[in-house]
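Hey, quick one: can you model this chain's 3D structure?
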Amino acid sequence: MSPAQAAFANAVAAQAFAVPNGGADHSALLANSRAQSIGMASGFAEVMLLVASDFRELLRTPLRDLVDLCTKQLGVRSSLLKLQKHKAQGTYPPQLLGIHMPQWPLTKEYSEAHPDAQSEIKTKWEAYRTDNLNAAILLKTQELAFLDQILVPQTYLPQLSDIVNTAFNQLKGHYQQQIMANDGTDVLRWDTSPAFKKIRDDLLVDLPHIGHRLLAIVRTGDMIAKQKEEAKKKLKDTADVEMGDASTSDAKIADLVNRSVSDALKKLRLNDKGSAKTPKVKKAKEKMLQTPWGKKPAKGFISGTAPNKSKKPVQKRGESSTKKPDASGKGKQRQK
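Sure thing. Here's the predicted structure for all 336 residues.
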């Protein structure tokens, strides 16, 4: 149960015993308690939970439309304020910035003789954008006045009341009770339950508070969002001022960073590939490449792979595969 629901239930239960004799004062106290509970709701869902279940779904769509219309009204008001700000600052919105002044090609000789040849075109172009800005401001002003008129209680409450009364007439047949004779044995007639009538009457009394609360939730949320946006903008402007020249372009900042990195790399004596060429590293590499025989290292030794000794020489075409006797005489002994 939401806080608003709990307050609604507690208030009704408490006020039921506050004036035991009932009467107009009792009804007024109950209405005030319900109104205070509705004012505690913080969202559309919570407000709808405070509507009697027999009428809740029938009122959900029109109340949602009311909330959406209020959101549109705030958007129109924001657009109007932006247009008025453009007019005060002498600027134009994006819709008019895209309208560029037409440039007509002229010969060099005529342009030199008539430097103001296109001044009339420029004047009409500027007047066109100014007139359109004024027309847009007037259009948004009329639209805002139209929405304001719809969102007043005098406009939307009669429609909501009609929905409640229509639903009551359709449902009252299910809420009938017997009216007994004085002796309590005979049924005089059947009539709509007074409790169901009370639910309908209480809802009609609560409708103004429900509509006002829904509109207040939307407007409060919009106000908080604008305050956050203004605070972020103010914080950004303050940070730019503290950092120095706020007008420094991104390209300039990137150039300064590249120069600083380049100077640091030069101090570290790094080549283009990023490998260090310090004298100690060169000497260590040369020492590793030296062989114990003082000779030039074999092919493949520098790259870290030992020469393949087991590889036999390639036999050329036409050569005999018979080994010639060794000059030391070992070959002769083998022949014997």
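One thing worth noting: Residues 41-102+124-239 form one domain.
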